[in-house]
Write a structure and sequence with these properties.
The chain has about 170 residues and is mainly beta. The chain has one domain: Sandwich (Jelly Rolls), CATH 2.60.120.10. It is built from 1 helix and 14 strands. The strands form 4 sheets. The protein has a 6-stranded antiparallel beta sheet with strand order 3-4-5-12-7-10. The longest helix has 8 residues. It holds the Pfam family Cupin_2.
């Protein structure tokens, strides 16, 4: 991981006369998502709760600031998150109820899927995760990996007659 990489979250808004101003700018706070190993960390960046998002009167900011996560996605909204994978970290297999856009910010990330199949993504690569059952692994034994994800609400995927649905049991959810 690049030395000194400390991402911040900056939120813009409008003054009463419509001019642009900074609402807030703070370092992203990371929290472990796989205790007791503590090798996977998530830093919440922003959530929206309607589609389209209502920006009037900073309604979206108020909803984001009061949001308490209950899984990966938000019904009818989005979740933006920065994930850190410590060297060798493995994220267990799961299925979200969302379509996820991921960008590898730094390091490498291995997508684990199927029966032992995998694909490596490197810095700058983009992943579109469409409610498929998958896991992640940082293949490096020395370097952290950082990935930016945006998860958007999606209708449950149906394959044939079976509705697959979210599966976060590996996370205790």
């Amino acid at each position: 991981m690049s030395e000194g990489l400390t991402p911040t979250q900056t939120i813009t808004t409008h003054s009463p006369t419509g001019e642009v101003k900074i609402h807030s700018s703070t370092p992203i706070q990371f929290y472990p998502i796989n205790p007791p190993e503590n090798t996977l960390f998530a830093g919440s960046i922003y959530t929206t709760h309607t589609f389209p998002t209502v920006l009037d009167g900073d309604d979206d900011i108020k909803r984001h600031e009061s949001y308490v996560p209950h899984g990966i996605g938000v019904e009818n909204g989005t979740v933006a998150v920065m994930n850190k994978f410590m060297p060798g970290a493995v994220c267990p297999a799961h299925r979200t109820g969302t379509i996820d856009y991921g960008v590898v910010v730094d390091g490498e990330l291995e997508l684990l899927y199927g029966d032992g199949e995998s694909k490596i993504f490197k810095r700058g690569d983009v992943i579109v995760q469409r409610e498929t059952y998958h896991g992640w692994r940082n293949p490096s034994k020395e370097n952290e990996t950082m990935v930016f994800f945006v998860a958007m609400a999606a209708k449950p995927v149906k394959v044939g007659e079976e509705v697959l649905g979210e599966d976060l049991s590996a996370f205790g959810m």
